[in-house]
TrEMBL record:
Belongs to the glycosyl hydrolase 17 family. Residues 1-21 form the signal peptide. Residues 382-467 form the X8 domain. The keyword Kinase does not apply. It comes from Punica granatum (Pomegranate). Residues 353-374 are annotated as: Disordered. Its EC number is 3.2.1.39. The lineage of its organism: Eukaryota, Viridiplantae, Streptophyta, Embryophyta, Tracheophyta. GO terms for biological process: carbohydrate metabolic process; defense response. It is found in: Cell membrane. This is glucan endo-1,3-beta-D-glucosidase. It catalyses: Hydrolysis of (1->3)-beta-D-glucosidic linkages in (1->3)-beta-D-glucans. One of its GO terms (molecular function) is glucan endo-1,3-beta-D-glucosidase activity. InterPro entries: GH, Glyco_hydro_17, Glyco_hydro_17_plant, X8. Transmembrane segments: none annotated.
């Protein structure tokens, strides 16, 4: 197949009708103390033409506010409840009744997200994921909602063992038999889809020396050739999705779809967070909306229209971590846009990226791959540390996972070794979390641990133990 330059593709997209195209939703996170009421949020969504949202819980105020709005919603079963949902069908039945059936049909729940990125959570969560999903589906059958509501679980890109080039995409081997094969079989049998969280920003941030900014922002660029499948990629976003498709294909699940449940770009960041800016955030999200609503899939699955949920609706001032974590929002808490981009086909008619080419162009090539389809960079180092506010129980569970199933190098925190002192849960957990994070190439989602950790941009030190940048 002849490959057209990206500039010509943009012209062709402008001439195509926006019919049978993909759809755009947003994530409605609420880790903040200054957000508008749920009723005001629903009015804001409707005024912007946003017809899909994903929430991270089942707050009754939010679900009541969405009633009769026409907005479709994905609700979440928190990681902490997966054990109960897996072990008890009656618990799953009760959860579905209280949080889905009791609001139906006024509130249009279309999906249940079982946990969030559980493969970087404690190992007990991982083994209960698929049983919990099955019990939730059985509960939906009980209430005759299984045709309207799908069950899935969002995975981070760190669930992949390889993601560059896209054709080499594969799942982490330790999860293939116990989790991915049964989960994908479940998704196939129930007509559901795999939820995936994809953040080109994190790949660019730590590899800006080799990833062209234009390639990350959907701007005109010469593209990146995949030697494995002969395809050419003009955006990092497409390349990352196709790595997931390739991983699924390797397990013979080409017929299962994918929904991108999180993606975004921060409008502000720390000095070390390369690429975090208002202009880049506007370009990424605006061009992404255009790319999705223009229709069509990825180079590997060209006929698969995409559903993509932007992260996030608001800037959330109570989130931990670097400055970027509090600046992924499309709107300020006062409901004003952080930057002006459209969310609908009609709005796209008048939309133009304010800066068609970044300085330096797009002539660099992506080589020396690591996780996320990018090259390891020595610049912009970050570290993963424990969040003491998560509580001892969660920290201990996450520490056990990191040193066990996660494969972190925890020898230095054993008695008598270099980083045993100070002998505190926070210090030991920080060392283990950072070991896992660095081992996974600092991939997006690999510093999560169910909220028990966060990323810092200055090298941490506990006593005489300084956390390293690589393993």
């Amino acid at each position: 197949m002849e490959l057209r330059p990206l500039s010509l593709l943009f012209v062709l997209l402008a001439l195509l009708p926006f019919s049978d195209a993909g759809s755009i939703g947003v994530n409605y996170g609420r880790v903040a103390d200054n957000l508008p009421s749920a009723n005001k949020v629903v009015k804001l969504l409707k005024s912007q033409g946003i017809g899909k949202i994903k929430v991270y819980d089942t707050d009754p105020a939010v679900l009541h506010a969405l009633a009769n709005s026409g907005i479709k919603v994905t609700v979440a079963v928190p990681d902490a409840l997966l054990f109960a949902a897996a072990r008890s069908q009656s618990f799953a039945n009760s959860w579905v009744q209280r949080n889905v059936a009791d609001y139906h049909p006024g509130t249009q729940v279309e999906a249940i997200a079982a946990g969030n990125e559980v493969f970087v959570e404690a190992n007990t969560t991982t083994k209960y994921l698929v049983p919990a999903m099955k019990n939730l589906h059985t509960a939906l059958v009980k209430f005759n909602l299984h045709n309207q509501v799908k069950v899935s679980s969002p995975i981070a890109l760190s669930a992949l063992q390889n993601s560059f080039p896209s054709s080499a995409g594969s799942f982490r081997p330790e999860f293939v038999e116990p989790v991915f094969k049964p989960m994908l079989e479940f998704l196939r049998q129930t007509g559901s889809y795999l939820m995936v969280n994809i953040y080109p920003f994190f790949a660019y941030e730590t590899n800006a020396d080799v990833i062209p900014l234009d390639y990350a922002l959907f701007r005109e660029n010469p593209g990146v050739a995949d030697s494995g499948n002969g395809l050419r990629y003009f955006s990092l976003f497409d390349a990352q999705i196709d790595a997931v498709f390739a991983a699924m294909s390797a397990l013979k699940y080409d017929d299962v779809g994918v929904v991108v449940t999180e993606t975004g770009w921060p409008s502000k960041g720390d000095q070390s967070e390369t690429g975090a800016s208002m202009e880049n955030a506007a370009a990424y999200n605006g061009n992404l909306v255009r790319r999705v609503l223009s229709g069509g899939g990825t180079p590997l699955r060209p006929k698969a229209d995409l559903t993509v949920y932007l992260f996030a609706l608001f800037n959330e001032d109570k989130k931990n971590g670097p400055t970027s974590e509090r600046n992924f929002g499309l709107f300020y808490p006062n409901e004003e846009k952080v930057y002006d981009i459209p969310f609908t086909v009609e709005g796209l008619k008048h939309y133009h990226d304010t800066h068609s080419r970044s300085s330096g162009g797009g002539q660099r090539t992506v080589t020396s791959p690591v996780r996320g389809g990018v090259s390891k960079s020595g610049a912009g180092n970050t570290w993963c540390v424990a969040n003491a506010g998560a509580g001892k129980e969660r920290l201990q569970a996450a520490l056990d996972y990191a040193c066990g199933e996660g494969g972190a190098n925890c020898q230095p925190i054993q008695p008598g070794d270099a980083c045993y002192s100070p002998n505190t849960l926070e210090a030991h957990a920080s060392y283990a979390f950072n070991s896992y994070y660095q081992k996974k190439g600092r991939a997006g989602g690999s510093c999560y641990f169910g909220g028990a950790s966060y990323i810092v941009s200055e090298q941490p030190k506990y006593g005489k133990c300084e956390l390293p940048t690589g393993y």
